[in-house]
Amino acid sequence: MFDYPIFEMPFIGHRLLFAFDAILHVFISHGAAVGGSIILALTQWLAIKNNDHKLDALSYKILFTFFILATAVGALTGIGIWIHINIINPAAIGALLRVFFWKWFIEWIVFNAEMILLLWLFLIWKKHPLGTQGKKKVFNLVLSYAVASWLTMAIITAILGFMMTPGNWLKSYFPAEPDYMAALFNPSWIPSLGFRTFWSIAWAAAMAMLLTWFFTKKDLELRQKAMRLFGTVLLVCIPFFVLFGAWYYAQFPQAAKDLFWMGAITRRLAAHPEYATYLIVALSSMVLIGAVSLYTKPKHAPVFLAVMMLIGSMGLIGEFERVREFVRKPYIIYDYMYANGVRVADVPYLNKTGYLKHAAFVPPEFREVNEQNKLVAGKYLYQMQCRYCHTTNGINSVKARTAGLSEEAIYIRIGSLNSPATPFMPPFTGTDAERKALAAYLASLATHDKPALAYQKQLDEVKK
Ligand code: HEC
Fold first, then answer.
1. What are the pLDDT digits (tens) for 331-342?
2. What are the φ and ψ backbone dihedral angles of 368, each rounded to 5 degrees?
3. DSSP state of 33
């Protein structure tokens, strides 16, 4: 096993922390970088073509905002994602790196080029005002920046698509000769790339509309022109990302489609799939009403409409990422590796020989379960197989999920984690003794007033 010392995220858990970071990253990378650079190229092209100094000045202000967002928030949350996935699921990142090493390396180079182009663009913009020969250089830089931003997204989307639909990579002569081209051209790559491309442009246009409102308080003519421009871009993109979205959805494995409604809301509300429809309709209406009003009455529409449109877009993006992550469960790489890093093919072997035996960061005295160490061993099992989605006491707490169950009942429940009622959970992996140890630990959380004491006692005894 590819391993890492155990790190538990108290209260909010890894799932939520990761979601915060990743969704914030998506807002910025898709909006300020990918879509933003395309919007910028369009406004620059129009400004040069019509010798429009006002549009040129406005696009500089928008560039300035996107620049701050992309370099500060975008790049930092990107690093946050790397740190977090390495801590929480080193096995998965190891597998992805093995398959996508060179593609990822290229992505890293392109990403650096993207940042350098952005800085460069920013530094030379004012030196070459509209009407001078050098403006063409500015435009070429904007275009190169847009191409670089889109290329990084194209590669990352291939990896994300692969996690959902590894496709023929697994069907090739695996593992001796995995088919790397099949991994890249996995079935959901192109549709999801098209989907994300148009959605990024639409989302950047929505952001540009809000910024335009603030930057054109004194020039309503410019506001009208810019709102119409960005509004047209946004509305034109919608049918494209809906079409690509439908094509993308069609590539999902059936089991993932079956989880769709549960992912769109919470499990507790899964009996009411109509709530998910209401939510999506409400968010889409916020975007459409905002965009259409700003488009038709740009001089009189209040800023509230632009803010509402932005909140609606953020809600839709967050909802999409949540669903995409949820429906992939119980896997992290579909059919190949479970969300907790256990490879599907290893399960029978680990069930026979023991899971802890192969856990590099568990002290040797806890790798073989016995009566003296079972609480501590159980805790290690919990940490390695469950903490990815559960916490002990906080969100989706395993203590609450097992409340009222006896140790025996917990033992039985552990045997059917991946059941039709909870198909999103990976099965428990390990020997019967390990399953009993995990049940003992989980039961100790509920039955002892101070479970930590019982646990500590065992830990001290074993260490003696
Ligand atoms: C891939 C994520 C994931 C992993 C890994 C995971 N669980 Fe869960 N588990 C969930 C989710 C999501 C729920 C449902 C929470 C809800 O009802 O809202 C859940 C619910 C449960 C429940 C309540 C089931 C019920 O019938 O209501 C138990 C018990 C449980 N988990 C135990 C475990 C144990 C023990 C492990 C580790 C061996 C584990 N889970 C690993 C995601 C996971």
1. 999 999 999 999
2. -115, 120
3. I
**Residues 6+ positions from 298 with CB-CB distance below 8 Å:** 220, 223, 224, 226, 227, 228, 231
Domain boundaries of the chain, sorted by first residue: 13-249, 347-463
Q: Distance between CA 357 and CA 366 in Å, rounded?
A: 9
Output the CA–CA distances (angstroms, integers) from residue 115 to 152, 198, 219, 324, 408, in the order listed. 11, 22, 32, 28, 57
- How many angstroms is it from 8 CA to the middle of ligand 1? 16
Q: Is 418 in the pocket of ligand 1 (CB under 6 A)?
A: no
Which phi and psi (to 5°) does residue 228 adopt?
Answer: -65, -40
Q: 425 C-alpha vs ligand 1 centroid, how far in Å?
A: 6
Which residue's CA is minimally distant from atom 28 of ligand 1?
401
Q: What is the pLDDT of residues 222-263, one digit of tens each?
A: 999 999 999 999 999 999 999 999 999 999 999 999 998 888
- Judged against a pLDDT cut of 80, whether residue 177 lies above it is answered with no
Half-sphere exposure for 290 (CA within 13 Å, toward CB): 27
The mean per-residue pLDDT over the stretch 91-107 comes to 93
- Comparing CA positions, the residue from 341, 316, 336, 321 lying closest to residue 263 is 321
| Residue 452 pLDDT > 90 | no
pLDDT of 14: 92
B/e letters for 406-426, b = 16+ CB within 10 Å, e = fewer, are ebeebbebbeebbeeeeebbb
CB 387 within 8 A of CB 5: no
Mean pLDDT in residue range 383-391: 94
Q: Is 223 in the pocket of ligand 1 (CB under 6 A)?
A: no
Tell whether ligand 1 has an atom less than 6 A from the beta carbon of residue 385: yes
CA of 396 to the centre of ligand 1 (A): 8
Q: Nearest 10 degrees: CA dihedral of 168, 174, 179, 184?
A: 60
Q: What is the distance in A from the centroid of ligand 1 to the CA of 268?
A: 13
pTM above 0.70, yes or no: yes
User: What confidence tier does 5 reach under pLDDT thresholds 50, 70, 90?
Assistant: confident
Mean predicted confidence (pLDDT) in 62-84: 93
How much distance in Å is there from the Cα of 16 to the middle of ligand 1?
15
Identify the pLDDT of residue 188.
96
Task: For domain 347-463, give the CATH superfamily.
Answer: Cytochrome c-like domain (1.10.760.10)
The neighbouring-strand residues paired with 397 are: 391
435 CB under 6 A from ligand 1?
no
Please report the pLDDT score of residue 261 as a whole number. 85
